[in-house]
Amino acid sequence: MVNRHYVEVLGPLLERAKATGQLSPGADLDAFLALLMLVLPHLVMASANPELDAVLGLGRNTRRDSEHAVDRLLEVFRHGLGRA
Prior knowledge:
Elements: H1 2-19, H2 29-48, H3 63-81
Helix pairs in contact: 1-2
């Protein structure tokens, strides 16, 4: 149910972003959507269960530290799929 919701909401959002030049023309939207479907639930669960994230430390640090970790993940998406 949740995955279908992600596809229904994020799919058109990604298509619009690509059409308006916010994503690289060569961005693989299906792969991007699949990555988001993996990352988003992890972010939610890791903030309440520190043992789920051994790399970024989500849920173990201050809110500011967690926000920084999320920003780091977003940068990966920006560099990989953003405008060239």
